[in-house]
Design brief:
Elements (H helix, E strand, L loop, with lengths): L8 E5 L14 H10 L8 E11 L3 E3 L28 H13 L5 E3 L6 H10 L7 E7 L4 H11 L7 E7 L5 H5 L4 H19 L5 H9 L7 H4 L7 H10 L7 E8 L2 E7 L1
Parallel strand pairs: 1-6, 2-5, 2-6, 3-4
Antiparallel strand pairs: 1-8, 7-8
Amino acid sequence: MFMNALAPVLYLPHGGGPMPLLNDQSHLSLIHFLKKLAAGYQQPTAIVIISAHWETTVPSIYTDPNPALLFDYYGFPPETYSYTYPAQGHPELAQQVSKLVNAAGMDCKLVHGRGFDHGMFVPMMLLYPQANIPCIQLSLIQGLDARQHIKLGQCLAPLRERNIAIIGSGMSFHNLQAIFAGENAQYRQASDQFDQWLVNTMSNPHLTVAQQQQELEQWQSAPHARFCHPREEHLLPLHVCFGAAMAAGLPAQTIFNEPLMGHKVAGFRW
């Protein structure tokens, strides 16, 4: 049982499209992990979710009180386009997040009518299947600048004291070409080396927060970084999470580190 006065910050892998909801064999470890995770901390009063699948010119906050779902994947069975996840939105919290972002000198906008994308609803359907916690979604920023996303996360830090959880939904390995190529020892060795770097960066108790921040800002220098992330949108929710948690001055806990679709991926909690 995790015990913490602050609401958790979580960086979670969300798998491939809706495959975790289809009980795909390559996702069984992730499915089990997500189904058990919420038992380890106090239920939050609301959740802010940063998904790899939403990018806008400035940070955008989804404000609908009764959000629909956005089925932003293709080629899956018909039932995967009729899922429901009736979690309430939280327009008041969206306004508060907007003010926090503005107070840091960053522009932002409020967005209506978009829907929760699969980076939100797929993990949430396993994590909180009752859909009983209000949620809002916050976008990534086009340009995908690492430092800017850490700063965005810092804006969210005060929410933790109000029992509002922050979840970054992405994948710490996201090279689709390598995944579809199947078993390849060279690819697996490269992704393992990046995974080792990432786990050490986030969870090594001997690294200071400043050292962690420097590593994350310079993540492209990590072993095989651009192989693992030809485009970094699935990594940057981690930067937002780190920014939200860094004031506490503690390393992350590595709470998931298992093969997923042939390559090891990590999940972290602060």
